[in-house]
Write a structure and sequence with these properties.
heterodimer; A: alpha+beta; 6-stranded mixed beta barrel; 6-stranded mixed β-barrel; elongated; B: 8 helices; 10 strands; globular
Chain lengths: ~850, ~230
């Protein structure tokens, strides 16, 4: 028998698919929505991620302040360095430090990020002020028309006051308005303008205080530049056209190997910001992927029920002489057509979201979004959607091959199942592998992606096994006497029951929900509950050694206050075992410690809040070659062990120390702790300041800040409560995004469940009708259906609780490296929510079934 | 042509013998009625002849082809060329119009004039005005006439009909049967008809009585013409 010519078959495939689509898409609603939700969220997240990346790239020079920035800590550039910088292009110097801004009457003080700029600032972008006007005019010194008595002491008073441009938050915190004066260090400034936009605003400013911009000349008047004070000198360059930033960096490093400056180029601007956003985007992406895969089960269910419903048509076509592969191709084409329609809608949604979200996200995000059409993430999302469709649809589609044409001669289709054909197993495996590969390759952090794939694979196996177990147990159990319970159990294991599919989709959806609830709960707890009991109220920085006694006196004078202080310096890790830090192989999780300078100290004894992880602590009276104690998790990320060496650049001098031991550091206690702790004998002579953590009752906080800033204008107070509140605000923003994404997963799970209920609806109605005819009350029928839902719901809730908790534990301890706290209330709430949701759906379906009129279902034909 | 055909099917209660040694040769153009009580194996015999069920033992030959040696897709192609089937429950495809349903076998065989020939076929069974109607918009008798047009459209050598009037009232049933025989006569097709209805069986040239999966009686009318006359 000759086979159908290929072109005829192709045309027939399209013809059949088109005619079958006339049947409507009612049975495919779940498939369409699941695909839309999954692909749409992945496409949207991918587009947003790219919009943020492009935004940073487009504004990179403005964010950085130049083509390149060389940052020196504690000291300005030396004469030779300055000459080199001046000769390299147009340059600008910005000096930043933390400081306290005080109201003239001394009644309020606030931590600020003080930024002294020269005339060339900013090299890129512009500062927008309100009222509008040039920055130079706002910062200039001018005679004060009406100098207040507390201001204007000394020479400055006679010659007029410098102006300052401030963020609105400074006015709020100090209760001041434009035109008022504010004291910073030993100088007094007139508040001339509010900063509307600051191109190179630091991300830390979000948490550690709003910006105040003053002129470079005014900085000298503040008296804040003392030895050891935490001052950063940032030299920004606008290179001549055609000059490559990378070439300049190599030259600078070669000419001044000991400068210890941290050089950044515009293509690496805002690394911390990018990292944070990438982290959030990764998390959202994984949640979106879970939604897609949960929805995949819905796709599978929809295809299976479609094939079951189309059994007569399939059998007719086979009777009329259609080959198996033609019928299969026609139905696959039909499903792919629908999938493509859903994908198209999802991609439009994903592509448009950055524009739609811009007005909402702009005030929340500390980075500029550059919405555009990004084909990359959209193509990836589409490919993921198609692979997911194939992975989940091919298996049930293979059922077409099992529909015997002889079915038409019998009342029902022969349920005797043959094996799933090899090609279906192979293609499904191939699609699943492609999905996993794309997922891992497309995710920045491969390790996280692998965890995710492994977790999902485990979840599929686990919940499939659980579903099979239910079906098997229901089959083997002796039938209970209670008729409703008997019917419920029979329903779970009758041929064609969607039990396994429902258990898998609901189980994974619920596991994701529980994992997210627990991770969020852990973060929230870490911020809100755990800290206030142990955390200090303030950190005071830049205490000069000769101010220590006076500072101690102030703290001791406040009842209930106690403090700990340590000497503090800042330095940058420059070499790991002699290898320059920028060339060393370092895990992404440890990279942050090399990106900028770190605080460091020296101590005779193991600091509180640390435990020794490896090596030995030095004797208290150690006086030998430099030794250092390093954070254990960073050492692991950098591949360092006890006995290796670390080089640190301090004030232009490189100190190489041997790692004597590694410490686990409990950062969550928020006590004083340092990544790097040196042994005595190395740093004592270096210019340094002291860092003090003060613990005291909340009522006395205002008094402490007033007294310290009154006596020591150069000492800055970082309020822990304020900083935590700021962190909390950032986390809350992230939390909204995560919850939205979680909602998508739950919506997918709900759709799958709803789809399963709808697919079972006809059978349910028929059962209800027959039972009613036989004299069963509606209550009895409803009970039977609810028993069925309850058995499934409880089982899914139990397994998902275990698995979701495990997943949450892995995320918190492995990916976030935080301490895990089990939160039974969050778990119970999530599980109860999903179980009730399932019962609700079951109840709605049952109610509709009970209301059906019997007659049409009892007639033949 | 059937030679010593046996059919055994698996069931939850163990294997069941459906056909036990049926041998039957049908001449081209012959009209054959298969009658017998429920469970005698009538429909199964039809399915074996259509290649929808494989004989456990013996040979089935249709249009010179031994069905035992063909795989599923080859059987599908054989049906497309040589066999038409009419079912008790009509079995039209609900998403296709009458015309599309009738044209399906020709489309599957790749004929370019599928629709023109299907339209002629539908006109021949009196449904010229119903081409664009979907099955749900047609009466039972009309649906069965579409099924008849579909079964004859590709000019099959063999037409198998399983209780074609089983779902119709007697008057409509007679109309449909007239239509079936008219088409059979027009195409000269071999017709094998399964029925419970003795008057319907009498319209065929040959009656085969099946009991317990075996042929109990095989009666021929004096001549096909006589059979045809008897039917009128």
């Amino acid at each position: 028998m000759s086979a159908t010519p290929p072109f005829v078959r192709l045309r027939l495939t399209f013809t059949l698919a088109r005619r079958e689509l006339r049947g409507g898409i009612a049975g495919f609603r779940v498939l369409l929505f699941c695909l839309f939700l999954g692909v749409g969220s992945i496409a949207a997240i991918g587009s947003l991620d790219r919009a943020a990346e492009d935004g940073i790239k487009a504004d990179a020079k403005a964010l950085l302040g130049g083509d390149v920035e060389a940052r020196l800590l504690y000291r300005p550039a030396g004469a030779a360095e300055a000459r080199f910088l001046a000769a390299s292009g147009r340059s600008s110097r910005v000096v930043t430090l933390r400081a306290m801004a005080r109201r003239g009457d001394g009644k309020a003080a606030a931590l600020i990020e003080l930024k002294a700029v020269d005339a060339a600032y900013p090299l890129y972008g512009g500062v927008a002020l309100s009222p509008k006007g040039p920055l130079a005019a706002a910062l200039a010194r001018s005679p004060h028309p009406n100098p207040p008595p507390s201001a204007g002491e000394g020479r400055e008073g006679q010659r007029g006051l410098y102006g300052a441009a401030v963020e609105g938050a400074v006015l709020d915190r100090l209760g001041l308005k434009l035109g008022d004066t504010v004291a910073i260090g030993e100088a007094t400034f007139v508040l001339r303008a509010i900063i509307e936009r600051e191109p190179d605003q630091s991300f830390g400013g979000l948490i550690f205080g709003p910006s105040v911009i003053i002129s470079e000349k005014a900085l000298a008047a503040t008296g804040l530049i003392a030895p050891g004070a935490l001052v950063a000198y940032k030299y920004r360059l606008r290179l001549p056209p055609g000059a490559a930033a990378a070439a300049w960096v190599s030259r600078a490093r070669a000419l001044f190997p000991e400068a210890g400056w941290q050089i950044k180029t515009a293509d690496n601007a805002a690394p911390a910001l990018r990292r944070l956003f990438a982290r959030v985007a990764l998390y959202l992406r994984l949640v979106g992927l879970s939604a897609l895969l949960v929805g995949g089960v819905g796709i599978g269910n929809a295809v299976a029920s479609h094939v079951a419903q189309k059994t007569p048509t399939i059998a007719i076509l086979k009777c009329l002489g259609a080959e198996n592969r033609l019928v299969l191709a026609a139905y696959l084409l039909q499903i792919l057509t629908l999938a493509l329609a859903a994908l198209a809608a999802a991609l439009v949604f994903g592509a448009l979201l950055p524009w739609v979200a811009l007005p909402f996200l702009d005030p929340l995000l500390p980075l500029p979004l550059a919405p555009a059409f990004f084909p990359g993430p959209l193509a990836e999302a589409a490919l993921l959607g198609i692979l997911a469709t194939l992975a989940f649809a091919l298996w049930p589609l293979a059922g077409i091959g099992r529909v015997p044409a002889a079915a038409l001669f019998r009342d029902t289709v022969d349920p005797a199942r043959r094996q799933v054909p090899i090609w279906a197993i192979g293609m499904t495996a191939l699609a699943a592998l492609g999905l996993a590969a794309l997922l891992v390759l497309g995710t920045g952090d491969r390790r996280v992606a692998l965890y995710f794939v492994a977790g999902l694979a485990t979840a599929f196996v686990l919940f499939t096994a659980a579903g099979r177990l239910v079906v098997g147990a229901a089959r083997r159990l002796p039938r209970p006497r209670h008729p409703a319970l008997r019917l419920a159990i029979a329903n779970l294991c009758r041929p064609g029951a969607p039990t396994v599919g429902v258990v898998v989709s609901l189980g994974i959806g619920l596991s994701v929900l529980i994992a997210i609830a627990l991770v969020e709960g852990n973060i929230a707890r870490a911020v809100e509950e755990r800290l206030p009991k142990e955390a200090p109220a303030f950190f005071f920085i830049d205490i000069q050694p000769d101010q220590l006694a006076g500072f101690e006196g102030i703290v001791r004078g406040i009842p209930g206050a106690r403090f700990r202080e340590v000497p503090m310096l800042r330095g940058r890790i420059t070499r790991l075992n002699g290898v320059p830090a920028d060339r060393a192989k370092v895990a992404p999780s440890a990279r942050w410690a090399l990106d900028s300078d770190r605080g460091l100290t020296y101590a005779a004894r193991l600091p509180r809040g640390s435990t020794l992880a490896a090596g030995k602590w030095w004797p208290p009276d150690y006086r030998g070659p430099p030794l250092v104690s390093f954070a254990a998790d960073l050492a692991r990320g950098m591949g360092l062990k006890v006995g290796d060496t670390l080089s640190v650049n301090l004030l232009g001098r490189e100190i190489t120390a041997r790692i004597a031991n590694l410490r686990h550091i409990d950062w969550a206690r928020l006590g004083i702790n340092f990544v790097l702790v040196f042994a005595p004998g190395t740093l004592e002579a270096a210019p340094q300041t002291h860092l003090a953590a003060v613990y005291l009752p909340p009522a006395a906080e205002g008094r402490l800040v007033r007294e310290v800033s009154g006596h020591f204008p150069n000492v800055s107070a970082i309020g822990v409560r304020e900083a935590l509140a700021a962190v909390g605000r950032v986390l809350a923003t992230i939390g909204i995004a995560v919850r939205l994404a979680a909602l998508v997963t739950v919506a997918s799970g709900t759709l799958v469940l709803g789809g399963a209920v709808a697919a079972g609806h006809r059978r349910r109605v028929y059962d209800a009708v027959v039972l009613k005819v036989l004299g069963a009350t509606r209550g009895a029928v409803a009970r039977a259906f609810l028993f069925e839902q309850a058995i499934l719901g409880l089982l899914v809730a139990a397994v998902a609780s275990l698995f979701g908790t495990l997943a949450g534990y892995v995320v918190v301890t492995r990916l976030m490296r935080a301490e895990w706290v089990f939160l039974p209330a969050s778990l119970a709430a999530a599980a109860a929510f999903a179980t009730l949701l399932g019962l609700g759906f079951g109840f709605v379906g049952t109610w509709a079934a009970l209301g059906a009129k019997p007659a049409p279902y009892l007639r033949n034909g | 042509m059937l030679e010593d055909v046996h059919l055994t099917l698996a069931s939850p209660a163990g294997p069941v013998n459906i056909l036990s040694g049926v041998s039957l040769a049908v001449e081209p153009g012959e009209t054959v009625a298969i009658i017998g009580p429920s469970g005698s194996g009538k429909s199964s015999l039809l399915m074996v002849m259509a290649g929808l069920e494989r004989a456990s033992k013996g040979h089935v030959r249709v249009a010179g082809e031994d069905l035992g040696g063909l795989d599923e897709d080859s059987l599908a192609r054989l049906r497309r060329r040589h066999i038409g089937i009419v079912f008790q429950a009509f079995h039209l495809i609900p998403t296709m119009t009458a015309l599309e349903n009738a044209a399906m076998p020709l489309e599957l065989a790749g004929h370019r004039d599928a629709f023109a020939r299907a339209a002629d076929g539908l006109a021949a069974v009196g449904l010229k005005e119903r081409l664009a109607h979907y099955p749900a918009q047609l009466s039972g008798g009309e649906q069965q006439r579409v099924a008849i047009a579909r079964a004859f459209v590709a000019g099959p050598d063999l037409l198998l009909a399983d209780e074609p009037t089983g779902n119709l009232d007697p008057a409509t049933g007679r109309l449909v049967i007239d239509c079936l025989f008219a088409e059979q006569a027009r195409h000269g097709t071999t017709l094998i008809l399964v029925t419970h209805d003795p008057t319907l069986a009498e319209r065929c040239a040959r009656e085969i009585h099946l009991y317990g999966g075996q042929i109990a009686a095989d009666r021929r009318a004096a001549s096909p013409e006589a059979g045809a006359r008897r039917a009128r």
